[in-house]
């Protein structure tokens, strides 16, 4: 972005600054925003990339006293109190308030593009060792994870501890009441339905937490010969289908607070309670997180009695869509496979398998937060492509 500035002027009695670029386009900047974001050492701590100016010292009705163009690469502003600010052209251009410019920054920072899928999923695969030692492969993994919601890493060692290494590669893992990692296998007096040999219905993990883990890792260390197949469904794709098929059901699931509970002892003793909407939506009504785990849905239901049956009808319709043949993808993990998926989007399940005197199936699991994953993705993009 090497665009220069052709002209600069104050508008609207000094409340806006208009920048005309060399390519003929223009940008308008509110003066209160410009003053709030002065980049001088008095107002901005460059070593931390943090604002020092406090809101109580900001005049929300401020106007420029003078705006000039020292050269094509920056503008200079003098404020009524004689404070001086300079703004680089590239810095200004990136922060243009036009819808197109704002959309470009959103796409660049948050990678909102989604590729929906159903039973036709072509499961993306990358060798585990590649992402551990190759930044380009790791960047590809995390971008695909964000866009598709799932990536299978292949060829990991069949021992515990590989997910800890993966966590260090990203940054760090999410600690929960089940520990930094946890072992999915048949256990006596299981404190979680996953620690049995029974079928697991489609669910997201940990909606009982106020902020459920964003990304889940499952490393197959040992696999049973019969049964134990994994099942996946794209919750965002299905919620879109529900919204079109039955808007009222979608509205119920995206507005009703559902109680979740989890009590027991593992990494430490715990008694967790939370309220979540089955489908969390943003300001546009678009699904941004699925919070659905039938095993930990509480018997307490804090809604009026007359709203209970309509809720169950909506939930049943959503669950039927999740389990329909066109939406469900089934596969079987092999020892050394590490499935990585978006726990806010992808619901997972498991077919039952036979119990025996020895452990016949063993997965190690772990979580990471999307904040950590996206942080690593942005750092990798800068390192691999030299992009800020």
From TrEMBL:
Entry's Gene Ontology BP terms: carnitine biosynthetic process
Enzyme class: oxidoreductase
Keywords from the UniProt entry: Carnitine biosynthesis, Dioxygenase, Iron, Metal-binding, Oxidoreductase
EC number, UniProt record: 1.14.11.1
Catalysed conversion reaction: 4-(trimethylamino)butanoate + 2-oxoglutarate + O2 = carnitine + succinate + CO2
Co-factor requirement: Fe(2+); L-ascorbate
TauD/TfdA-like domain boundaries: 120-367
Domain Gamma-butyrobetaine hydroxylase-like N-terminal: 13-92
GO molecular function, a single term: gamma-butyrobetaine dioxygenase activity
InterPro entries the UniProt entry points to: AlphaKG_dependent_hydroxylases (IPR050411), GBBH-like (IPR012775), GBBH-like_N (IPR010376), GBBH-like_N_sf (IPR038492), TauD-like_sf (IPR042098), TauD/TfdA-like (IPR003819)
Pfam families: GBBH-like_N, TauD
GO cellular component: mitochondrion
Function: Catalyzes the formation of L-carnitine from gamma-butyrobetaine.
Family according to the record: Belongs to the gamma-BBH/TMLD family.
Protein name: gamma-butyrobetaine dioxygenase
Record organism: Nyctibius grandis (Great potoo)
Lineage: Eukaryota, Metazoa, Chordata, Craniata, Vertebrata
Gene: Bbox1
